[in-house]
Amino acid sequence: MRTTSSLPQGSRELRISSGLQIKRNRESDGMALITLRRNLCHLSDFRIHGALAALKNQPVNHVHKVVREHLCPWFCSLQPEPFRVRFHHACCKKFHSENGNDLHSAGEPVFSQVHDWDRLEQNLKNVDEQIFYRRLNNFTSSEELLHFISTLQTLPDTMAAGALKRICEVERKDGDQRLPKEILENSVFQALCIQFEQEPSNLSNTGLVTALQALTLLYVDPQSSLLLNLLAECQRRLQRGDLEVHSLCVLGESLIKLQGPGCAALELVICQLQGEKLEKFTPGGIVALYRILQACPEKVDQHQTFLNKINNFSLSIVSNLSPTLISQMLTALVVLDQTQALPLFIKLGKCVVRHIPHFTNEELVKVLEAFIYFGHNDRFFTKALEQHVASLCLTLDPEVVSKVMEYCGRKLILSIPILDAVAETFVCQSEKFSPSQISELIEPFGKLNYLPRNASALFRKLENMVLAHFNYFPPKTLLKLLHSCSLIECHPVNFMAKIFSPYFLQQLQGDESYLDRLSLAQLTQLFLTSILECPFYKGPKLLPKYQVKSFLTPCCSLETPVDFQLYKSVKTGLIDLLGARVYFASKVLTPYRYTIDVEIKLDEEGFVLPFTVDEDVHKRVALCVDGPKRFCLNSQHLLGKEAIKQRHLRLLGYQVVQIPYYEIEMLKSRLELVEYLQRKLFSQNAGVRRIIDIFIHQN
């Protein structure tokens, strides 16, 4: 390496044979002016003695135009006494040094329009960086990126780090976690890496942390000198407190990927971030804060005070978030269990509505998971989701489709446009769905008690899929799937013999000492279905030891408990109607595992019997006191588990009388309630109706 004797002390520059020159990019007032002044001396417009004096008399707009026409857009900014990073590459045979301080003669006047030049310099810098990164993002291969970089005369360290990061991003998209040999041996790529490896102390904060961030995108040997040198320099600056907010955020996320969330350096990063004013953070910086804290959910209690502060501040920036940042913030709120930040979630949810068409498949899945987790539903969100799914149903990722269905099922949303579109998607593209996705897709149809328009094609396709891939379905997943079909009278007769077999039951139990309660309840209801609704089924029966005694259990019920307030109103009306509490029973467990809200016994002539009497009972009336939780959300459409219960009770000989909440709510007086119950219970028995009429008038 040769250096000229005229090179000032503290000023270094190295030009690579490939034409690439990398310099430190310091944010300093007047730095671009010096670079600009040096370069303008070579322009035809200013080749005169005292060129800067000529510049002084030129309008700023004219200078801007000349600069844009003549200067290479990839220029480097220097300080008045620039420190240019020495850049070594083993493949380079010639190294040159330049004097970057010979700016003007002693008699040359000083430029007076400093503020105008500052604005011009900053505009040029911002525009150049935007163009540079836009060009980088347009390339789809590392070869294109490296060729583009090799054509540049100079390159600041921040842009060099950005180029390195983009190369790693492109290679990561190709699915390989390591850089290919031809990239590693490329002279331009080696030049980039040597720059960061040998003199990391000369890098700007942004260039340093961006280079480290690039290495986290692909597998890098943990003992490589490049990685170790960058990490060591980052930790030195971290301990000195030299890193600003953005660099701290980038470093924090890189440390998580390289050393895990338990490393001591990450604690120091979080500590320093807590000391910063949140007003200094960009919206992306706030979301980066969430991502860093999200990496250590076990320490959420320790960081909760800081999280509360971030949650409150984030309310003011929600409208400035991109779809990607919204998705990431929602994910962090879920992972960190920030259910108390409901105002922030609701505000994010409102922004989600207008961004639904712009989310990627992965982002939309995260958004749906957050809505499910927070238990929130919004009719505008549902409407936007309906439009999105209906218009793109055949192009949506299977994971998105199954997550949309899970959202509808969890929130009990009977969205006919979504359900019909998803059914059509499955019929056309069933081979794209995994067994678990198929189950997640089909279960809501049973839960919401809805048969799509193409029901015959849907369940024919489903049957073929299950027959062809029966052994690939996890036992519990398969049981849930088949049970869901039975709720809407699509009975899995062809599979009942298999699921009642000892072999399947053993698989269902797995390594556990006993079968879980929900699986037993689903098996029992399927067995009851085979008896009541499939009398032609002659296969194996479910052994009694696998049958539950009641479908109504606290943890995993196949029935919805009665609404207490609604039951109290009906109970009062029944006492007025029948004359005494003894004439009806409540919460009656039948021999068929169902629990009846109210049971009334009638003799052969239609007279009401006391509930304690078991002889001469000709008919049993089952009152289903159906509160809002037994219906789909904001509708009068009964849920699948309630529909099958009422269907089975009728097949068992009960006279089922439905008392829905929306009819009770329309009654304005106690007398109206009694008359309503009379019509419901005794409309088919004129004799009893006359007795009841006399009773009502007497009271």
UniProtKB/TrEMBL annotation:
Keywords: Mitochondrion. It is found in: Mitochondrion. GO terms for cellular component: mitochondrial matrix; ribonucleoprotein granule. It comes from the Eukaryota. It holds the Pfam family FAST_1. The keyword Nucleotide-binding does not apply. Residues 621-679 form the RAP domain. The keyword Nucleus does not apply. GO terms for molecular function: RNA binding. GO terms for biological process: mitochondrial RNA processing; regulation of mitochondrial mRNA stability. PANTHER family: FAST KINASE DOMAIN-CONTAINING PROTEIN 3, MITOCHONDRIAL, FAST LEU-RICH DOMAIN-CONTAINING. This is RAP domain-containing protein. The lineage of its organism: Eukaryota, Metazoa, Chordata, Craniata, Vertebrata.
